[in-house]
Amino acid sequence: MLNYQNEEIQEKLRPIRLLLLDVDGVLTDGAITIDDRGVEAKNFNVKDGHWLRLVMELGIEVILATGRVSKALEYRARELGIAEVHQGARNKVQIYEEIIERKGLLPKEVAFIGDDVVDIPLLKRVGFAATVADASEVVKGYVHYVAKSAGGKGAVREICELMIRAQDKWPAIVARYEL
Hints:
Largest sheet: 6 strands, parallel
Number of helices: 8
Radius of gyration: 15 Å
Structural class: alpha/beta
Strand order of the largest sheet: 5-4-1-6-7-8
Distance between the termini: 25 Å
Shape: globular
Oligomer: single chain
């Protein structure tokens, strides 16, 4: 059961206007399947995708930043309506700084979900830093929240729900599905 009453977490999540996500190990389980023609496939969690759409519908922008380049990610982002995707991102901090300047955001208005040591510099800069249950142990020391679920297994969905609840947008979600 998630602790939706944690005041420190709620305080960090209330001002969030942008959710920045790593991809491999966060939106996917980290597995990459390559067939004998070199075509790459990744596993994305449908629940994570659904909740990313809900977050966007409620006014929180979603941007993806990943070190790899993948046609599968391009397709998934387009399918979810995520307009800004940074592939081949070797310096996520530089991308983050460009984004907040361009959008006029403060660091406290940005959440980032990362899972490995390359994400630590960015996790240290954002207003809300989160990771997945199966992240590198060292990464867990740099975040405000560790999801109960693993990457590609509902962790993004879990964090999106925390964000929606902290911003008092939960009743709008529930109202959609009440009969």
